[in-house]
Amino acid sequence: MKAFCEQLSGLLTTFGVLLVFVGFIALISLGENASAQSRHCPLEGQSNFRDLGGYETKDGRSVKWKQIFRSGELPKLTDKDVQRLADLKLKTVVNFLTAKEIEFHGEDRLPSGVQPVSNPIESDFGDLAITIVEARKHADFSKVPPELNAEIHRLLVSEETSRRQYADFLRRAADPENRPLVFHCSHGVHRTGTAAAILLATLGVPWDTIRDDYLLSNVYREEEVKLRLEQFRKQAAENRGIAPDEVDMTNFKAFYELRGSYLDAARDEVMENYESVEDFVINGLGLTQADIDRLRETLLE
């Protein structure tokens, strides 16, 4: 099982997303009140750093700006990036990466005085992890099941290890003394996307808005994913002895494309096993109603 956990960690670390039409739709949808442009904090060393402020809740309130940020990993930040985080008066960084991932990628580069918090999330993904490792190794995704991304999000809300880390994250986020706070994994997609969904849903943000926020990763990671796909195209062509333009990229793109249905799998898993989001947060994550009330009182306006 340990080997499988390590394989899944590697899988999550190497995931990317493809800029697709749904990404543009998300950007346009969130941009109606200019919040999409305002929330993006492009860094030289991390393109997927953004503010979760401004999202409206079902009861007419909104998430406070410059309090909670989501991101991908932060080891490659430049001096300019670090200064920008300092300007945000960042206090806490919650890192969902495992010790092995941190050893491979390096420690986060943070301003002086910022508190790093380790909430490692790993999961047993069984034979599918092996399938992904082999697919990447040989640039052949023909055996990768199309439901893989959805399954990852489902596991992230159903397994005890990830639920425990998400619970700790929510408690920290509820305390103003820990904010401004940023949370991240490798690319800011799976573990971070699930965390953002749980947080925003608990605050009362509509699911359509949560899904649109998730899809913004398609936009912000466009260049990185283009490069990754071209590398796979070249490797696949060499392996098969054909021209690069003859490689069928359908399965590659299907694997790297981020779709709203992937995150929906997490919501569906929760609603199949709990009466509501609050029920999941209380009985699935172990928070109290007081914890939820504090989260809303301190993060909404």
Automatic annotation (TrEMBL):
Residues 162-219 form the Rhodanese domain. GO terms for molecular function: protein tyrosine phosphatase activity. Its EC number is 3.1.3.48. The keyword Nucleotide-binding does not apply. It holds the Pfam family Y_phosphatase3. The chain crosses the membrane at residues 12-31. The keyword Cytoplasm does not apply. Residues 167-205 form the Tyrosine specific protein phosphatases domain. Keywords: Membrane, Transmembrane, Transmembrane helix. InterPro entries: Prot-tyrosine_phosphatase-like, Rhodanese-like_dom, Tyr/Ser_Pase_IphP-type, Tyr_Pase_AS, Tyr_Pase_dom. Belongs to the protein-tyrosine phosphatase family. This is protein-tyrosine-phosphatase. It comes from Novipirellula herctigrandis.
